[in-house]
Amino acid sequence: MYSKSVRLENVTKIFKDPQSGQLAPAVDDVSFDIAPGELVTLLGPSGCGKTTVLRMLSGFETPTSGRVLIDGADVTDVPPNKRDTAMVFQSYGLFPHMNVFDNVAYGLKLRKMSRDAIKEKVMRFLGMVGLQELWKRPPSRLSGGQQQRVALVRSLIVEPAVLLLDEPLSNLDALLRERMRVEIRGLQKSLSITAVYVTHDRVEAMSLSDQIVVMNKGKIEQIGTPSEIYRDPVNMFVAGFVGKAAFFPCEIREVDSGFCGVEVRGRRFDVPKWSPELRENDSAAVMCRPESLSLDAPGVGIADGVVTTNVYLGNSVESWVKTEQGEVLVQIDNPDVKKVRREGENVSLTFEPGLAKVLK
């Protein structure tokens, strides 16, 4: 397949509220680039505008302003059937009166391919997802995961320039979702296809993506790799949405070239990452992930508290600690070696500065 780039330039989509009659932007001045062969995930809560962005990429919605470009060509006003894209829907959208083979072959028949060429290609693509033995079955006799594979292959077989996926795994159970994530990522990479994936599930976004676009209230909060988004969030919304995090209120005491000195409840800590707009004497918060926190004797860390619950997960223990800031989760890896504090014990939370960030 020939991979193509995607570009959104200052795209805005305004809808009229059916109840108030007022105009409101569902997507507000959104711009980003997708390189050929890259999988980019649009991540955010319900109503943040991510599905509207996907529909504008597919042609099912037209931007109020801005441009959509595929491989440098302006397709803003091009209808869906004229764009070199394919959509995988949350509801699968399989034809119930057709068997697996005919569902997958549908797009090829519209392209007037020969019968022999269609048969060879359909069976080859079904083989990629382990469904070649089920080619005669109707969708009603397939499991949810098998139906999802058929929907995915039906979109891929027409070799679109861009594959668009709208929460395709939301109807599957947890184990099947995990397996299908691996299959989707493997197929996308092996075919070098450009893909845009919409989800509100942070685990899906982190495990699938080359880049993540975090959205909130119609705007982009941050764009970056999964590691960048998780380790270096730009604000508290991103930090809390892409993973579990604790926020400890602090005062900025010093901003140096190599660290940000903060004071928390009279204690001084130096943190190597901070929001660039922070200045001395500003109020801020130290963001800590569960794996960056440790439990120590009272009085030495960033906060004191009491262990309320220990949850054993095999390779780790989740300790929940009640503090003045609320309950804080501490992840203790390798609990057979590391000490696990008993429930009801008074403790102090210490943190690894290199894994923390000071946020506005």
Which SSEs are present, and which pair or pack?
Blueprint: E1 6-16, E2 23-34, E3 39-43, H1 50-58, E4 65-70, E5 73-74, E6 85-88, H2 100-110, H3 115-128, H4 144-156, E7 162-166, H5 174-191, E8 194-199, H6 202-208, E9 211-216, E10 219-224, H7 226-231, H8 236-241, E11 246-255, E12 260-264, E13 267-271, E14 283-288, E15 293-296, E16 303-312, E17 316-323, E18 326-333, E19 346-351, E20 356-359
Parallel strand pairs: 3-8, 3-9, 6-7, 7-8
Antiparallel strand pairs: 1-2, 1-4, 4-5, 9-10, 11-12, 11-14, 12-13, 14-20, 15-19, 16-17, 16-19, 17-18
The percent range for helix content is 10-25%
Strand coverage percent = 35-45%
Count the strands? 20
Residue runs with pLDDT of under 50 for 5 or more positions: none
Strand order of the main beta sheet, please? 6-7-8-3-9-10
> What overall geometry do the principal axes of the alpha carbons give?
globular
The radius of gyration computed from the alpha-carbon positions, rounded to a whole number of angstroms, is: 24 Å
Largest sheet: 6 strands, mixed
Oligomeric state of the chains in view: single chain
What's a quick, concise take on this entry?
With 360 residues, the protein is an alpha+beta fold. Helices cover 23% and strands 36% of the residues.
Give a verbal description of the structure.
The protein is of the alpha+beta class. It has 8 helices and 20 strands. The protein has helices at about 50-60, 100-110, 115-130, 145-155, 175-190, 200-210, 225-230, 235-240, and strands at about 5-15, 25-35, 40-45, 65-70, 75, 85-90, 160-165, 195-200, 210-215, 220-225, 245-255, 260-265, 265-270, 285-290, 295, 305-310, 315-325, 325-335, 345-350, 355-360. The protein has a 6-stranded mixed beta sheet with strand order 6-7-8-3-9-10, sandwiched between helices. A 5-stranded antiparallel beta sheet has the order 13-12-11-14-20. Strand 9 (about 210-215) and strand 10 (about 220-225) form a beta hairpin. Helix 2 (about 100-110) crosses helix 3 and helix 4 (about 145-155) packs parallel to helix 5 (about 175-190). The chain is globular and about 75 Å long. It starts with 5 loop residues before the first strand and ends with a strand.
